[in-house]
Amino acid sequence: MLELAVLGLLHESPLHGYELRQRLKATLGTFRAFSYGSLYPTLRRMRDAGWIAEDEGDAEVVAGAPALTGRRGKVVYKLTAEGKEHLAELLTDAGPSAWEDETFGVHFALFSQTDPEVRVRILEGRRSRLEERREGVRATLARTRARLDSYTLQLQEHGLESVEREVRWLTELIETERLKTTTTPRKAVPHSVRP
Amino acid sequence: MLELAVLGLLHESPLHGYELRQRLKATLGTFRAFSYGSLYPTLRRMRDAGWIAEDEGDAEVVAGAPALTGRRGKVVYKLTAEGKEHLAELLTDAGPSAWEDETFGVHFALFSQTDPEVRVRILEGRRSRLEERREGVRATLARTRARLDSYTLQLQEHGLESVEREVRWLTELIETERLKTTTTPRKAVPHSVRP
DNA sequence: CGGCGATGTATCGCCGCGATACATCACACT
DNA sequence: AGTGTGATGTATCGCGGCGATACATCGCCG
Which tens digit of pLDDT belongs to each residue from A20-49? Predict the structure, then answer.
């Protein structure tokens, strides 16, 4: 969700819409774009919800004819106290909502702001999610293989390999993450995962 | 687009909604799901547009109390003449709309119904699209590498590798496809000489 | 001195998704 | 005999995101 991404970015420094978008591209890259058609409405929604506030940066408008052209200059947004609170809350969530296709990348990109334990749980959740999908594809593939033409088959198998690659990647990440937490010992608190 | 997928599937045999959905999963696999929330409205739209028609399959409803529960039984859809025409038209399109993220998979899954020349052009188009993206990612990555935390960096690099892998896959496909057209000399593209 | 690409804010309609509702039927478990 | 569970089947609703588009300013290069 865009909301989380914006919260995460604004946590580092106040930004205006355009810059926010650049950062999103730089941060999420191939994973997700988030067009202006999503950004601006979301920004408004978040402002109305009280998570962010407009930080009137440039009062040096003046001169020309401000009244004629209406609002000039950039609109800089910054986190409010509630926004920070909300962000912290969202970052603790290691439930299914965090390992969905669309959301995982955002959570991952914000891992440096996330609790190490939560990180591992998200990575593991994401991995099981993908393992489920892998098994699903394998099953239907085995069942329908004969009926499929070569192109569909190739598509299926390519997709399957992509998922497998993804699982491998996650496994590596989990191991590295585990190493980190074992060398920096913390008290392991088992936590139930809500559905 | 769902429309094309439905057209392509119905070209082989008449199907009802549920079965159509199963086929979509089996055909597109990891690539795309297409929920009922898209399917049924699309079906209606297509029917209204005249591409498909309801092929009242089961008249053996009767007995119980048909009037009470309203419409019983499955609604089977089949291609109309216009539908076939429209499909043929869509399958000739090798323009940008065919190599977009969301559409490419559908086009690819329907390759067995597609003209060989169009196939190659779609594959090449898709590849350039991904090469562009790859260069874009490389550029922003080179520009911002220093500013990124390790997680964001890892996400970026993983994404980059995914794109690279995709490009390799497409290159292989293009080569195979080229071999096919040169070893099976169809309706004469005369000037190309094989070494 | 003219145009073009980057910066900047904003809206609109469409598409697809997930959740949800409801109904029937086969089969297994108890 | 009763129960429940999973597959088959049709359908709707709200919402989040996308691509296209509009419009305005600024700085730089030719």
Answer: 999 999 999 888 889 999 999 999 999 999
